[in-house]
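ARCHIVE CARD
Drawer: 12
Card no.: 0347
Subject: one protein chain, sequence and derived structure
Cross-reference: see card 0346
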Amino acid sequence: MFHYLVIGGGSIGKRHFKNFQDIGVESTLIHYRDLDLRKLKKFAKEKKSHLGILVATETNIRWEIINELKKFDASFYIEKPLTFDKKVFQKIYALPKELLDRSMVGFMMRYHPLVKDLISLRINNFTTAKFEIKHDVKKWRKNWNFKNSYASKKEGGGVLLDLCHEIDIANLICKSLTISSIHSFDHKDFKDVDIKTDVKFLSEERSSCKVEMDYLSPNLIRRGHIKGNDYCLDYDLVKGKILYNDKGKSFQKSYSADRNQMFRDILEDFVKLTEGYAVSNKNIPSLTSTKEVNFLIQRAWENRKFLGQEDFDLS
């Protein structure tokens, strides 16, 4: 029988553990502070190839877990972002391809029905594209404080890594992007932690693509605008709508989505991937298929250029 370990007892780790229980698989939640790698390696050795490991710790302490357990033929689900560290990126992608093929990164927005349709439209020959994700970081969760969170840390914190789903969406739609520029603003109380970041990309055809991320927006914004020579597409994940117009075709479609259902769907695909069954999503975010976007995120974070500071109450 397969067993699934969730390492990391924060809100996301607890969510994954509950979802494992709800879908009926054998699982254990391990808080990082209680992690005993010696005991864990003994357990992994006993399970042999019947083990899935979900790593939901802080980004800067994931490699040590992967490195210790990689030889036990387990599959890994690594929360996004994969890493901000170039050396860790290189180490992960030096792992055997077979392991990369059956391991995943937590880009669960690929399971949103609107995003699935965006990808299936196979948009070509765009001239400009803009993707936005903006929200007031103080309104994210009850009993949560930015100052005391991992998001506020210089190494691995900040909006670019926190809200990198939109970079994944942009890369899925616009394809083969390269970074043109990264402009960020930090905060007077959190130096070198990006509170706002705009990343500009170029496509293979030299078309422009921009991703805007912001911790300070009073209202939740999550939308995109893609324009070609003879078409225009707008989507809004908050309102759940796609509007598409071109010379010969026009349609509008509405969507509803349950956030936790997306987490469950990606987790079920992780179980299928681990146990050798067919997955539900053809764009499953395996480590192999997400190499390009993981590289973009790591490179963008590494090359942020801070243009100024925000003076905004983050208490």
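Annotation on reverse: The two ends are 47 Å apart (CA to CA). The longest helix spans residues 259-275.
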